[in-house]
Amino acid sequence: MIWIEKSSHVGYNIKRLKILEGTVIMDMNFFTVFDLIIGLLGAYLVFISIKCTKSGEVDPMMITTEELTRCSDIKGLSAFLMPKTGIFGGFCVIFGIQGLLNDANVVEFPRLVNVIFLIAFVIVWVVFSMCIRKAKKTYIH
Question: What are phi and psi of 88, to 5 degrees?
Fold first, then answer.
């Protein structure tokens, strides 16, 4: 195993890279992985929101297939839920990017900014969860 460090005097933050059998793997901590997953989930939610809004469908990731069979108005459910899914996905992308930039030391956000982003993420998630609950009460019988 060989360790390579990029020094900060050439404009890079110090990063440790492992070269293992010809591949380069960055050291990643739990929060980096978490931020990456949140960002990718957000991008996927934006994608399915656009796709399902246009087609009048609801993705089974949002509402289970069993619940969809009990839905009386799938187009109405799609019109109600999928735009909100896109908004939540957009916020997830923003939160993921902010976290990755912070974890990679590309931008050093003050602790207060990180706390505000974390609180905002929880609030957005709770509001989105309430929207899903309302959609189920309204459209699924």
Answer: -60, -40
Give residue-wise pLDDT tens across range 57-93. 998 888 898 999 999 899 999 999 999 999 999 999 9
What backbone torsions phi and psi does residue 59 show, to the nearest 5 degrees?
Answer: -70, 135
Retrieve residue 99's tokens.
């976290």
Rounded to a whole number of angstroms, the distance between the first and last alpha carbons of the chain is 59
For residue 91, count CB atoms less than 10 angstroms from its CB and return exposed for 0-12, middle for 13-18, buried for 19 or more.
Answer: buried
Cα distances (Å, whole numbers) of residue 44 to 5, 86, 90: 34, 9, 10
Residue 136: predicted pLDDT:
92
Given a cut of 50, the residues of the chain with pLDDT beneath it are 1-25
What's the gap between Cα 40 and its chain centre? 5
Copy the structure tokens of residue 38. 């949140």
Q: Could you give the CA distance from residue 46 to residue 16 in angstroms, rounded to a whole number?
A: 33
pLDDT at residue number 28: 61
Using CA atoms, how far apart are residues 40 and 136, in angstroms rounded to an integer? 25
Nearest to residue 60, comparing CAs of 84, 91, 81? 81
